[in-house]
Amino acid sequence: MNSMGSRVLRTDRPDLAARLRNLAPPVVGAGLLVLAAVVPAGGDDSRPPVPVTVQESSYACPAGQDITVAAGQVERGTGATAQALPGKTPVTALADAGAWRTTQATGSGVIVRQKGRASGAVGFYAGTASKKHGGGLAVGSCPATFEEGWFLGLGSGAEHESTLVLTNLSESPAVADLTFWGPRGPVDAIDADGIVVDPFTTKRVKLADLAAGEPELAVHVVRRRGSLSVVADDESTAVFKGTEPVSSSLAPSRSQVVPGLPGDADGRTLLLLNPGEQSARVGVRVIGPKSTFTPQGLATVKVGPGRLKAVEVPRSAGSGRIALRLTSDHPVAASVRIAPDTKDRAYAEAVAPLEGTAVVPVELGDDLKAPELVLTAPRRAGSAHLVAYDARMRRLAEHDVTIAAGTTQHVALAKELKAKGIAYVLLTVRGTVLGAATYTDGHRVSSLVLAPAPVTVLGPQVR
Amino acid sequence: MDETGLSRHWLDDPPTVGAVLVAHNGAAWLPKVLASFADMFHAPAAWRVVDVSSTDGSADLLRDSFGPDRITYAPSGTGFGEAVRLGVESLPRTDWIWLLHDDAAVLPGTLAGLLDVATSADDIGAVGPKIREWPSLRRLLEVGLTVTNTGARETGLETGEPDAGQHDRPRDVLAVNSAGMLVRRDVWDELDGFDPNIPLHFDDIDFGWRLARAGYRTRTAPGGVLFHAEASRRGTRRRTAGDVPPWEARRAALHTMLANSQGARFYWQYLRLFVGSLLRVLGFLVSKDPESASDELLALRAVYAHPMDLRAARRSRAMTSRRRNRDFSGLFAPFWLPYRHGYDAIRDAVVALVKPEAVETVGRRSTLGDQSPDDADDLDDGPTLLQRRPWLVAALVLFALSFVAGRGQFGGVDGGSLVGGALPPTPDTAGDWWQLVVERSHDIGLGSTSIGPVFSLLLAAVATPVWFRPSAVVTFLMLFAVPLAGLTAHRLGRRITPRRGLRIVWAVSYALAVVATGAVAQGRIGTVVALIVLPIVVNTAGQLVDAPGWQLGLRLGIWVSVAAAFAPVVLPICLAGLVLLVVLEGRWVLRDGIIAAVVPLVLLGPWLVQRALHPLRMWWEAGYPLPGERPGLDTAVDLALGRAGGPGAAPAWLSAGLVVLAVLALVPTRTRAYVQVSWVVALVGLAFAVLGTTLTYSTPAGASDITPWVGVPVVIWTAGLLTAVLVAAPEVGGLPRPMLAGLAVLALLLPVGTGAWWLVRGVNDPLEHSRPDVVPAFMVQRPGDTLVVTGSVERGVDLRVVRGDGPFLGQEALVPDDERTDRARAAVSRLLARASVSDVRALSAIGVDAIYAPRADPEVARRIDSAPLLEPAGSDRPGSRVWFLSGKPNTAHADGPAWHWVLGVGQAFLWVAAIVLTAPVRRRHVPVALGDEDELDEVTS
What is the Cα–Cα distance from A181 to A216, expressed in whole angstroms? Predict the structure, then answer.
């Protein structure tokens, strides 16, 4: 009986395979759901900016009787126009997109517009100021539309006056906001917000009109609306005279390099701006001709919140061409004022490593000699390839420079590129290299930051 | 009993009435008809009977009743008018003539009631009784007649309208039925009776019309009641040689209209009726009714090929005419009535096609029943509507609740429509959707020459009756998604289970599962339509299995096409389902399965090819391609519980009970096989849902890397589980009561909980009823396109170019001009990198004249700000920026190839042809002639 019963049970009980079949649907469903849980999601859908080839460039140069304006490019463009402001008078001497051209234009400024795929159009200006304006040598680049600029080393005192030259490059009114800092903290300025620049005009804003009596100023310029370029002219008629166009330093950051300090141990002043609300401790290292080291007496600089601090670079930094490498616990902006004697002054600004090709202007007027390049490789070794061209964009000479890791080298263009009629030099680097060109004329000196020509620029990915 | 006899003024000097009864094979009705004559309060002074060659014994009945002297025998083929003429000729002269049919019974007071009205004024030429249906007795057939401009006989009554005294006020009408008509003898003589050219149909309308033109009035006399079997019109009279052909009714209508039209209106009617008749022929052919089409053509030929007859008829009418038609224009039917009838006919045809078993007839009962006019009893109330039609009540409740859930979405903003989420606004008219189908190039931002989406063709067809309010279609589909899905699901449920209660719960659960995904709140009209249609697809597939046939295969293909037009992913899912069907059912459904698979490829046509070139775009449904959920644990849980992510979804735990029950449903052995089939269907849906979450697709208009929304497959998964539970539910009968209660709670958690959530939350947000808001209103009227920029420099920028106030539903699926799109991207890329004049001019050259950043990233805005030739403008929306381009935009767009419109029309034709092919051929209904004993049994059984 028992055996029979167990036989019946065995017969009625579904075998294992049948049971598994019954369970199959939920099991398959669970498996699919596990798949949905574990399959990696698609990658981050963010699309970082990518290089965009420039098809057209516009820039604005200061103009005047003693100012030579130069226009050039990396590759020939397909067309160029130049107009002197305020009347938009054509400046035909600058309208050839296939040559290095210079002229002295009348007016408050010149707007150059150049077409051409990856032409890399750039403009420069140079001149010697009258004694009334400091009597110094000024060599600067003509800026395109900017987003924001950090200008250090300016002043609004009786003998140290700086002027912002704002140029509107388009048909619409442009608006800019200014913020000031001094050694004692932020400086309240009058009417510094919402400065309107009419279409195709240049507006010269004397800092003394907004915040008078400040011998040392840092200015943050933000373009709020419109197409606007800005140049800062710094003049000193004090004992240490001089004139210099001040370029924008890098936006405040925790690590930066100020390259292009010429070879003289005296008259170097490190300017540090801490726009934040906490004190910043800035470590200073000197990138010298042979190595990088910490200068004695300037290991760490403390900059109070919202303060602009000027610190003398000690002689321990050496008399060779150097660069300063700055690291800080809070973002700071930096530049170095160079005043080797009482006749003139120059500024070296913190810049980003050079990417692409930079144009070094040589032909900038009758009396100006070819500059000296001061190149720094802050971390690993780098190299620079120099090619000289004449005004018709014919290649004249080449030279290669190697920069050892953590060192600063200099290249005297007149010496290394033995050719006559050099109008400009194209500088292409490999590795992380920063630099500046130093122009001298007797005791007069001027420093020009080396920046890539606008062949490509970073733009958002568009779809 | 004559309750009004004492007040009747005419009794003082009663007018004489001579009655003429015309009989023709009316033996089926004559016994009761003759009996009704025997007991009248006021009887005619003279009688004359005309028998038109009856062969069914009618002559004997008449002879027995009236005696041989009062009978006139007319030859075969004698029309009603001619028969009356014969009768009147042999009738002694009386004041009035009373015309009677052999299938019309009277009440004792019928003639008295007629005389009450007839003697009330001197200009009354004819009066007619209130005619009720025989034998229903309470339904009204006629209380006066008129005619529409298209020649349709019009009673002004609803079909099956019961007599509740609502028409008991005498009134002037154009005509009255010849059955029971009381006509003044002198008027009859003046008008020479009925027109012999109109032997049967329309003779009464023609006579009334002529009478009105002669300056007399025709009035209804509701006090006189007559019961009419309408044997000739309904074809229940045995036919003999010489009877009028079926097309005579239409010929008589055309003849009457044209013979009585006056002046310039005649020419208009002449043309209109000709064209209208041809359109009717077309309509009959489309609805597969060739016999009616043939009748229409024959009638047309009979009238238009004999202009001299028409001329003679018009001349004779002119001789007796004293008034213009416009003098009594109020007696004609309103001008819009034919269109209303046309709409009703189309609606009925569609209903018949979609749901043939739902077509109810208000047909008559046998006219030979025992019920006589004297036995008019009230109907028994019977069980309540809820007991008799629980699903009807449930559906009505769902419709009512939809109003609650859709509160605030039905209107309120002039010119607004449902928008938001994935749903673009609706176009201004249905014509815009038609235009999308046939135009060579589309007027959207950057222009487009691509082929419009097929769903716009379907929307255009559905929205045509509401031409100027196409938003009503979208509103109906979206806000009534639950009852609509419930209706289709319930119909499928009939196939699955005979248990009414379970079926209703199942259907309601499915309907709420649709809204629980958030598809409605997110404006995903593609998902909504597909899920409404999918139960029909499954039902049709079931019919195919029951009785394979190419027409069912075709119908299945059509429904798949409808669903896939709105949600293309339905196509691969259905193909998988068809494969499953063939595997389960065998090769005998293979041919029809192939037909069902091929039809969508044909009907979706080139648009499908466009999608197939980028297969992952099959996930892009009608509307904007809003992304769904990416893979992950949360997504897996959501999928398991029937959610596809996004706003507006019901709490997922409401479906937890369903999953548990679906697993338990595998336990009973008796139903296990069917439960497993349901699980397989569910797993197909789940597999597609999981697959969808792991993919991404891009659209040609800009958006890319979009994770598909898997609402459709997720609801298929849910529906599969629901079906598994439904199939196994009857097996729980033997379980202990507490366990039963627990299972019931689990089962009702989804419908009750989701229903409550649906009502409380509503279906708004992001769905809303408003105007299009792609760009601010002040930019809509600008001549050029607007470039809409979103995103940031760091994470990438998306651009969209829109025309006017942005795309309407259907336009979002168009592919903008490739070359212009590339130029726009390149120009914007350069503009945001280093703006120049040429970049802005490049935008102008492709038709852009404004840039709009709805959520302007500061960096993007600053870069656009730096561009020359751009004029910043104020925006009326916080956080947004607007720039206008100086210079005139180039709005000229390239035209597409000429064959585009041919393709569009061809595609529309294919849809119509496919639908027509699925419909059965209609044959003329030939009722069994009453009086034939053999057939009588059949009719009365």
Answer: 9
Which structure tokens are listed for B832? 């945001």
**Which member of B639, B693, B796 has the closest CB to residue A461?**
B796
Considering only residues 323 to 352 of chain B, which have any Cβ-Cβ distance to chain A shorter than 8 Å?
none
User: Over pLDDT 70: what percentage of chain A?
Assistant: 95
* pLDDT at B360 exceeding the cut of 90: no
Predicted confidence at residue B853, as pLDDT, reads 92
Q: Which of residues 167-186 of A touch B (CB under 8 A)?
A: 169-172
Question: Number of A:B CB contacts under 8 A?
Answer: 169
- What are the tens digits of pLDDT across the range B838-848? 899 999 999 99
Give the count of beta carbons closer than 10 Å to the beta carbon of residue B168.
Answer: 12
| Residue listed under structure tokens 């000479």 | A397
Domain hosting residue A10, numbered range: 2-34
Element (H, E) at A179: strand A174-182
Interface of A with B in 103-142 (CB under 8 A): 113, 115
- Picking from A196, A455, A462 by the largest number of B CB atoms within 10 A of its own CB, the best residue to mutate is A462
| Residues 475-504 (B) with a CB less than 8 A from some CB of A | none
Give the domains, in start order, of chain B with CATH numbers.
5-234 (3.90.550.60), 479-769 (no CATH), 777-885 (no CATH)
Residue in chain A closest to B672 (alpha carbons) equals A22
B825 vs A463: CB contact, 8 Å cut-off? yes
Residue A26 located in a structural domain: yes
Phi, psi of B372 (to 5 degrees): -110, 170
C-alpha A148/C-alpha A163 separation (Å) is 16
Q: Is residue A16 part of a domain?
A: yes
For residue A354, pLDDT beyond 90: yes
- Complete DSSP assignment for B177-232: -STT-EEEHHHHHHHTSS-TTS-STTHHHHHHHHHHHTT-EEEEEEEEEEEE--HH
User: What are the DSSP calls for B608-641, one per residue?
Assistant: HHHHHTSGGGGG--SS-----PPSSHHHHHHHHT
Most confident of A277-286, B314-323, B369-378: A277-286
Residue A352 included in any domain = no
Exposed / middle / buried, residue A42 (Cβ in 10 Å: 0-12, 13-18, 19+): middle
Would you place residue B342 in the very low, low, confident or very high pLDDT band (cuts 50, 70, 90)?
Answer: confident
Give which of A35, A170, A171 to mutate to test B binding, by max B Cβ within 10 Å: A170
Is B690 part of the contact surface with chain A (CB cutoff 8 Å)? yes
Nearest to A348 by CA among A281, A255, A263, A406: A263
Calculate the average pLDDT of chain A.
89
Q: What's the pLDDT tens digit per position in A295-307?
A: 998 889 999 999 9
Complex ipTM: 0.82
CB contacts, 8 Å: B798 with chain A: 462-463
SS3 state at B530: helix
Q: Does B16 touch chain A (CB under 8 A)?
A: no
Is residue A376 within a helix (H) or strand (E), and if so which, with residue range? strand A372-377
Q: DSSP for B419-466? A: EBTTBPPPPSSHHHHHHHHH-SSB-STT-B-SPPPHHHHHHHHHHGGG
Torsion on CA atoms B256, B260, B261, B267, rounded to nearest 10 = 70
Domain count, chain A: 1
What is the pLDDT, as a whole number, of residue B927? Answer: 54
The answer to whether B628 and B644 have CB atoms below 8 angstroms apart is yes
A167 contacts in chain B (CB < 8 Å): none
Question: A25 vs chain B: nearest CA distance in angstroms?
Answer: 6
CB atoms within 10 A of CB B784: 23
User: Is residue A34 less than 8 Å (CB to CB) from chain B?
Assistant: yes
Q: Inter-chain contact B868–A23, Cβ cutoff 8 Å?
A: no
